[in-house]
Amino acid sequence: MDQIHTRALEALQPFVHLANSNSATSPRFTTNLITNATSSPNTYVFAELLETPAIQALRAPDTPDEYKGYLTLLEIFAWGTWQDYQATPNLPPLNETQTLKLRLLSLLTLSTTLKPLTYNSLMSALSITAPLDLESLVTKAIYSSLITARLSPATNPPTVNVTAVAPLRDVKPQSLGPMVSILTQWETRCGDVIGDIEAEIARIRTQSVRRRAEEYERNVLFEKALAGWGAESGEGGKKTAGWQGRDRGGGLGGGNKREFSADDFDDDGYWEHGLEGDMQGLGSRMDVDDGAGSSSRLGAGGLGARHPKRVLGKKS
């Protein structure tokens, strides 16, 4: 779309040079220049031509009436529509090329101001009586890269779906004030939105810092509690180990002991010494306690009653 604007500016330059030349002194020459510029196939913008002194000279009071309408005609081609041309009296007639161009330029304006773009609304605004003529005009605008659109004749009502419009319409000087006002209001709203966003960002950052501080304090408390629990667990482990050692060392519940030598038995299962052996010697050779945990059993007269040892001898 920008390329079509560049081409339109380039196409207008020869007419601008002619308007600025020394020969552009008579109203007839100026009006012919306007007619040729508006009839040229690739000229769609005219603001630069309108600003030339030769064109503005047509506003002079001494300009003949037959030439005064050409300046208004050029303004309509710059920012007006077909309806403006129809509603303005004393304008010069248009040739076929000018008629097509003004309708194409009007279609650009209507595509941005008229919603929805139905066949009936466009035909009424462009003074077209047949739908086929409207479709031919829209097709011409599409292939000239003036608009990006799609025809929908089968819908109810039939419509023209425009998705892009080339920036080829000039700005009317009287509309600059409202445009500045609208842009100022938009700037104010943008500033308010940016202020709200910055305030929200500051609030989120403050909350994030507070959450991090709270999380750090919780971690510190947790580590202190974990360290205290570890110290208490270590002291309890020492006490438990002491009790276990005491229990293993004998204490009140010493384990039973059965000590003997396999050599003390002969082949028939009797002790070597028999009955003649010294009891003291036998006692030194064998120490057998019957019954597991006998030392922990309480007797009638003391801490525990020791069972008598059995003395085994040889068979007679």
TrEMBL record:
PROSITE patterns, per the entry: PCI
Origin superkingdom: Eukaryota
InterPro entries on file: COPS7/eIF3m, PCI_dom
Keywords: Signalosome
GO cellular component entries: COP9 signalosome
One Pfam family from the record: CSN7_HB_subdom
PCI domain ranges (all copies): 4-165
Annotated region (Disordered), positions in chain: 232-316
Compositionally biased intervals (Basic residues): 306-316
Family stated for the protein in its record: Belongs to the CSN7/EIF3M family. CSN7 subfamily.
Name of this chain's protein: PCI domain-containing protein
Organism: Aspergillus heteromorphus CBS 117.55
